[in-house]
């Protein structure tokens, strides 16, 4: 898959270097799922402000961690291209 810069090929294989990025994505999905479930619990308790706060915070943290994983993969692709 090409990066946004269209100059570097991002490596999505599950090699040793990508364990950090894969771990970040797994943590991000876990936070998102737990956040949605927690938000639904708050909705059942009629705590609407807590519902929105929990939902938005969990999704923002998830997006941040996914972005960090993509940055790590992009930096690895740049480093691999410089080594060649």
Automatic annotation (TrEMBL):
<keyword id="KW-1133">Transmembrane helix</keyword>
<keyword id="KW-0472">Membrane</keyword>
<feature type="transmembrane region" description="Helical">
    <location>
        <begin position="20"/>
        <end position="44"/>
    </location>
</feature>
<feature type="transmembrane region" description="Helical">
    <location>
        <begin position="50"/>
        <end position="69"/>
    </location>
</feature>
<keyword id="KW-0812">Transmembrane</keyword>
<protein>
    <recommendedName>
        <fullName>DUF4282 domain-containing protein</fullName>
    </recommendedName>
</protein>
